[in-house]
Batch of 3 targets.
Target 1
Amino acid sequence: MSDALDIALRLIAVFVAFLVFPLVIGQTEHKVMAHMQGRLGPMYAGGFHGWAQLVADGVKFAQKEDIVPAGADRRIFQLAPAVALLPYLLVLVAIPIGPHNAVGQNLDAGIFFVLAVMGVGVLGSLMAGWASANKFSLLGGLRTAAQLLAYELPMLLAAASVAMAAGTLSLPGIVEAFHWWWVPWQIVGGVVFFTAGLAELQRPPFDMPVADSEIIFGAYTEYTGLRFALFLLAEYAGIVVLCALTSVLFLGGWHGPFGADGLGWLWTLLKTAILAFGVIWLRVTYPRLREDQLQKLAWTVLIPLALAQIALTGVIKVVIS
């Protein structure tokens, strides 16, 4: 009975985090962009610092009519938002937040699990583009597929480098094996991993598949109301997962200058929050890449850097041993 209760409590904690953290990221993006761009609207909703903006957005989406195009593949069209969102809930189960088994489920091959499941989330965009019976949506889905193929490889190679350094595929094991002197020689892999993750989430400046000014929000053109909101929620959930994974793999997770045991979870959340702020900052700062620039960055820059990082990791491991 105690084991069942422990599992239930862990699953509830993961589910609550899944419901809360993406909404916090969404609210923060409203405020950060409002400050950086001088946008006064999001700062007034509800009074103090626009606290009710997120509530207003939720009410707006709930009130919109749920429309399914007449020529659409109805079942696939309706399932696509769930396919885009739910993989991030599964990934959160395997990400450790602190020491002493503070993780939903410690998997021996956790790094393989999280990367494989994150790749499934992109299928939601492909399903939406294919099922919408709209040429703009289909074009957005095809761009999503091309972007996934280009950026999945450097992301996997960068993660393989840190797994080699730690000598384990377990995410808690990688954090436990972490040393601060890893940061200088794993930083290239961290940048590659983070950049490739942004591209897989289709976040600016890698948002060609959802280019609102060119192909009318890509694969999601025909979506309205709560179904469209689920795609936006999947994006914010993906930001949480990407930033948490980057902090666990490349920044030491719960390790900090002090309080690694008692405050380890706080260090993990702090590193995740700083990286999430960086994601928002990139959206405000950089223009959208062209499709050829996007592909060139992946194949001629990120993949060679990831391969060089693996080679460096192998050399250092041999020297240390």
Note: The chain has one domain: 69-320.
Target 2
Amino acid sequence: MSQTVDRALSILPLLAEGPADLGQVADRLGVHKSTALRLLRTLHEHGFVYRQSDQRYRLGARLFALAQEAMENLDIREIAHPHLVRLNEQCGHTVHLAVYEEDEVLYIDKVESRYPVRMYSRIGKPVAITVAAVAKLLLADLPEHERRAVAEKLDYPLYTARSTPNAGAFLKELTKVREQGWATDLGGHEESINCVAAPIRGADGRVVAAMSVSAPNVVVTADELLTLLPLVRRTADAISGEYSGRTPTKDVV
């Protein structure tokens, strides 16, 4: 039975490359045409493959519907939380998860620092969009015309001397962030708080969320915090892999 399931599932990536006839499927699986036909018929009955008028097979609409439904039901917070906790245990600093929704960047999860001096932030509260590292990552992933439109309608409050002063500077920063794949806020919102952030990507490579590590400079300097960037990026990559289905979870048997 496991061999049959394995062969049936092997047909799907083959058809993802384009329509194939019975002979091509049989050759790829290394089986007789009658075996390949039985597998294709079963997949066809479930809507996973479709037989065209030229007798070639392609992926069926049911497969796409299931994929879309699965994506809609994925909870990035649920997937990310154990990784955020683990990162917090490793570095001890505040860890945030944020998303871009309806023209705002919102924190949707937070793991508190173990140090007595902490930064103030709240789940569900919008971040300072022109300076926050997570906001830079989320907006940098937008198509250029959307980035420009967003940047031009924002206000640019000068929280500190390091705050982003105007749309031109913000767009320049977003281009830099897009190219390097990570972002910082080094005293842009609060002079005493520094932050490094990395993107979480979906199966299509687009940024679906961003995570960060933040700490006051009385606990660690900006340079010391930047040394955590490789760890932050590895954590973001692990979340991306689990969210997009590229890596199996340890609980799978």
Note: The chain is about 45% helix and 20% strand.
Target 3
Amino acid sequence: MRLILAEDSTLLREGLVRLLTEEGHEVLAAVGNAELLLKAVAEDPPDVVVADVRMPPTHTDEGLRAALEIRERWPRVGVLVLSQYVEKRYTTELLTGETEGVGYLLKDRVVQVDEFLDALERVAAGHAAFDPEVVRQLLGRTTHSDLLARLTVRERDVLAEMAQGHTNAAIARRLHISQSAVEKHTNAIFDKLELTGGEGYSRRVLAVLRYLGS
């Protein structure tokens, strides 16, 4: 795939370039701030952007705001956000929009190469890839804990897997239950959370994340 990287740490940026190149991907640009990221995407939109959250000049949320702009201006470009933190305000905005081709990983996952590459492939394919810790923190900030309290333990397990972007088949394998059981739990989750379910994987994740960000 064709990629653009935005990371202000030279060591990590160059390490990612080398890793992705060795995996057979084409790195179109590797930049150190959000302004250069947007410029690079405008010049030659890639398949996926991998962007840090905190970059110069303020080292707060420049990368995440750039990710939001990319999603608005170039909706076909996948975005995989990398951070040591969950910046809740803009993360919620990112994840409650269209979640096709969106991911958010904590940087600890980068050292787990297979998980990082798997997330990248999922985002490039138009799916979602969310770090379990990101999901946990977003779950923790919701004001609808009364609705979550309606869920059974198994339904909570399925919800957590759904919010990470896993398909029904993958959830069944990960939780060691049948796919029909996953579908049953999924329907129950949407009923109990008073969500309007949609057809297809990405719509389901979108509905869950809209609830988490409310």
Note: The chain has eleven helices and six strands.
